[in-house]
């Protein structure tokens, strides 16, 4: 049971890092800094996009972008992951032990 608990925390941490990579890649694409990047970088960016975008689309459906064009959905996803991780640590340890 402890291994499953640690696996869940590990996956949440990995997803947080993937979201961070997604944010950096979208900035780089918007600034046109990856126009001449190798195909390998574009494949990695596409994989990250496919992992993160379904969760962000659900948040964007509930909370559309602000009038200034700033998209807060990655921040909301960070908050959701933080809440899930906190609940797992708080109540998961009580359940395991």
Q: Provide the helix percentage.
A: over 70%
Quaternary class = single chain
For the report, how would you describe the main beta sheet? Answer: none
Mean pLDDT: 89
Radius of gyration: 16 Å
Number of separate strands: 0
Q: What order do the helices and strands follow?
A: HHH
What is the number of helices? 3
Q: What gap, in angstroms, lies between the N and C termini?
A: 10 Å
Low-confidence stretches: none
> Which secondary-structure class do the elements indicate?
mainly alpha
Describe the structure.
This protein is mainly α and 97 residues long. It is 79% helix and 0% strand. The chain contains three helices and no strands. It has helices spanning 2-30, 39-62, 73-96. α1 (2-30) crosses α2, α1 (2-30) packs antiparallel against α3 (73-96) and α2 crosses α3. The N and C termini lie close together (10 Å).
Write a brief caption for the model:
The protein has three helices and no strands. It is 79% helix and 0% strand.
Descriptive key words:
97 residues, single chain, flat, mainly alpha
Write the layout of secondary structure elements.
Blueprint: H1 2-30, H2 39-62, H3 73-96
Helix pairs in contact: 1-2, 1-3, 2-3
């Amino acid at each position: 049971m402890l291994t499953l608990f640690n696996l869940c925390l590990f996956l949440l941490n990995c997803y947080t890092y993937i979201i961070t990579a997604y944010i950096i890649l979208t900035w780089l694409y918007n600034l046109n800094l990856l126009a001449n990047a190798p195909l390998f970088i574009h494949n990695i960016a596409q994989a990250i996009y496919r992992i993160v975008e379904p969760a962000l689309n659900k948040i964007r459906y509930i909370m559309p972008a602000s009038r200034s064009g700033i998209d807060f959905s990655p921040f909301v996803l960070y908050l959701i992951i933080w809440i899930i991780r906190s609940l797992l640590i708080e109540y998961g340890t009580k359940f395991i032990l």
